[in-house]
Design goal:
Layout lengths: L1 H11 L2 H20 L4 H14 L15 H13 L3 H30 L2 H13 L1 H6 L6 H16 L6 H17 L3 H17 L5 H25 L2 H13 L8 H10 L1 H12 L4 H16 L14 H16 L3 H26 L3 H13 L32 H8 L6 H7 L1
């Protein structure tokens, strides 16, 4: 009986959830330090190196993402130098952003439900969503875009507060999110739609909406001035919008959603239940926001896993609410979070550490650095080892079938031959 009582006490104590969350975060940190670098990460770091060395994005080298992350990393790259340790340091920066994403998610949950339990559960559920923790710990513009997008959602959720401060801060946060990545467009559309609903139901005023979007535009003015002043607005539009809209690579998001459900069925189930148990207007609004972000993925020609990153924090919050509402038992709730959800994530984390270490990648990159100088050209069309050296063409990556190069060639004539370029350089 004493052992049973002790077990019941452990399962009913929320400190168990904190312990589980702490274990997950430590595994996330281990993956950040030792996990394999994706091509997108090396692309981002190499783009920063090119900017640092005087190349102009969209003019001197191909890129089809907003460049705020690259400009942010460039001065740090100058300080820490052309070293493989710098790559790991950038991963640590992203890990800090990952923690900030958890923090803002917790605060949104508190705003919506005024429940620390729901907030804590949302952090565990979010940390265990396989697709999210893989992408949210990588050096990619999606991570700061999601963080500032969530900050915008946090201030947007405080619609009952009459202070202009929240309107301004929310608009500027949304603007910064957009500067990091154009995917923030989906969140922009969702917020505008919900603002119009608020206006129709007399929960806001036209003046508030007007101020919001004026501040949003104001946050973009420095970058817009930079583009106009340097005369490459047409290049910006071509590579960020026209190329992406006409991208030859295309597939359905259904497969990704099915895979996510198979990996995290508990989270998806309680998300559905959380939507059903949403009664208050502010919670229904959060549900609507999550559905808009999810459905927006179907508008994208190539919806890779990172396209779901803005949706998953809201999903985790609503799933935490569904868990609390449907299971009115503290022991059962803690058991589900600790033994039905967390182990799946922990197994995948440990598998990543064993199977996909970055040791060989860093050795290749270090080999290139050691055997070339800063004026040498290196051909690496698949972003595997050339991080700190020059490239042989404007299209230095995205040259595989149906990617950036072929998409551009489908719109404009462009001769590209890797053999000729290697021979020339």
């Amino acid at each position: 009986m004493k052992k049973e009582n002790k077990l019941i006490n452990i399962l009913s104590d929320d400190r168990l959830l904190y312990l589980v969350l702490g274990g997950i975060i430590l595994l996330v940190l281990s993956n950040s330090l030792y996990g394999r670098f994706s091509r997108d990460e090396l692309e981002a770091i190499h783009s920063s190196w090119k900017i640092l060395n005087g190349e102009i994005v969209y003019v001197d080298f191909f890129q089809h993402h907003h460049p705020f992350l690259y400009y942010t990393l460039a001065p740090l790259l100058k300080v820490f130098g052309e070293s493989t340790l710098t790559l790991v340091f950038f991963r640590v920066i992203i890990f800090v952003l990952y923690i900030l994403i958890l923090w803002i998610t917790y605060n949104i949950a508190l705003l919506l439900f005024d429940s620390k339990k729901t907030g804590l559960l949302s952090l565990i559920l979010l940390s265990c969503i396989t697709t999210f923790f893989v992408k949210a710990t990588q050096v990619r513009p999606d991570v700061p875009q999601v963080f500032f997008g969530l900050v915008a959602i946090y201030f947007f959720t405080q619609y009952k507060t009459k202070s202009v401060k929240y309107t301004v801060l929310g608009a500027f946060s949304l603007g910064i999110s957009f500067l990091f990545l154009q995917k923030a467009l989906f969140l922009m559309i969702a917020i505008l739609l919900l603002q119009l609903v608020r206006l129709y139901t007399k929960r806001t005023t036209f003046t508030t909406i007007y101020v919001y979007w004026c501040c949003f535009i104001l946050s973009l003015l420095p970058y817009l001035y930079y583009i106009f002043h340097n005369g490459f607005m047409s290049d910006y539009v071509l590579y960020n919008w026209i190329i992406n809209i006409n991208f030859l690579d295309s597939f359905s998001p259904i497969r990704g959603l099915v895979r996510s459900y198979k990996q995290n069925p508990v989270v998806w189930t309680f998300f559905a239940l959380g939507v059903l148990f949403s009664r208050r207007y502010i919670v229904k609004e959060a549900c609507a926001l999550s559905f808009i972000l999810l459905l927006a993925v179907f508008l994208v020609k190539a919806p890779y896993e990172q396209y779901y990153m803005m949706f998953f924090p809201l999903m985790a919050i609503i799933a935490g609410h569904g868990l609390v509402c449907t299971i009115n038992n503290k022991i059962a709730i803690n058991s589900i979070a600790s033994f039905a959800v967390a182990p799946v994530a922990m197994i995948i984390f440990c598998d990543n550490l064993v199977m996909t270490k970055n040791t060989h990648q860093l050795e290749k990159i270090e080999y290139v650095i050691s055997n070339t100088n800063r004026n040498d050209y290196v051909y690496d069309g698949y972003i595997k080892f050339n991080v700190f050296r020059k490239d042989i063409d404007f299209f230095w990556y995205s040259i595989h079938p149906n990617a950036g190069l072929e998409t551009y060639q489908s719109l404009y004539p462009y001769h590209y031959s890797s053999y000729e370029l290697i021979d020339r350089f």
